[in-house]
Amino acid sequence: MSENRPDRVLLTGAAGDVGSMLRNGLAGRYPVLRVSDIAPLGEARAGEEVVYADIRKPDEVDRMMEDVDAVVHLGGHPVENTWENILQTNIAGVYNVFESARRHGVKRIIFASSNHAIGFYRRDRPIDSSVPARPDSRYGLSKAFGEDLGSLYADKHNIGVMAIRIGSCLKRPPNERMLSTWISHRDMVQLTQVGLEASELHFAIVYGISDNRRSWWDNSVASDLGYRPQDDSEIYAEEILAMDPPEDADEIALQLQGGVFASAEFDGDISKV
Ligand code: 15L
Hints:
Layout: E1 8-12, H1 17-25, E2 32-36, E3 48-50, H2 58-65, E4 70-73, H3 83-103, E5 108-114, H4 138-157, E6 160-166, E7 168-169, H5 176-181, E8 182-183, H6 185-197, E9 203-208, H7 220-225, H8 237-241, H9 260-263
Parallel strand pairs: 1-2, 1-4, 2-3, 4-5, 5-6, 6-9, 7-8
D-galactaro-1,5-lactone (15L) binds near residues 78, 116 and 168.
């Protein structure tokens, strides 16, 4: 996968949890890593450029995009928020990023989608990348929008797009749900590199998970692109399943892949979901 390494990679949302982990994990892999956020990023490290930008503002996005070859777009609200905030940052913001990338001739975008784009699927129903979105929140809806935007820019503008439905990117899984949804840091770094460097990529939706025995998601699209996860949450299973309870959630959340994102504000009929 290393034949197709971009020279200047832009990482948005680089001050966030996953962003700062990827900032470290991608360090030295590409000639220039341009890190961006609205939050403090500290000094530029070796091989880095720091460009502050608010993705709600197209002129700032254009400045951030100059001379970039590939984008890893993590910027935005990482959990549920008000409609106004989701609309401005996660929906208009992701549009600003794709549109500026198109105008700047960028040919590869990795979009940080989320499992919350499909969070209303039941846990007892395994799914793959081809199922329709089933968002569990305004946040999940914005991720489904970003995936569709990626499909549009791949088909219409020939930008190679990988949307990663990230599960739970943490050092270790803290509860039973995350035995299914967990992705280790090193696997997340590898999957991002696969997206940046795959020689053939039109539009792909992949799951951001490790090689978890308890996964609900068929990740064959990612493995076809070359993803070879190193970790499996199973090594934490005994300890987590011995906790009381192994997952601290309500009975709706416990049935749905999105967990408490799906059960929050829920006044539906669970028998119809
Ligand atoms: C997400 O999309 C969130 O950004 C993260 O904070 C976790 O909650 C994760 O999903 C998850 O579902 O575990």
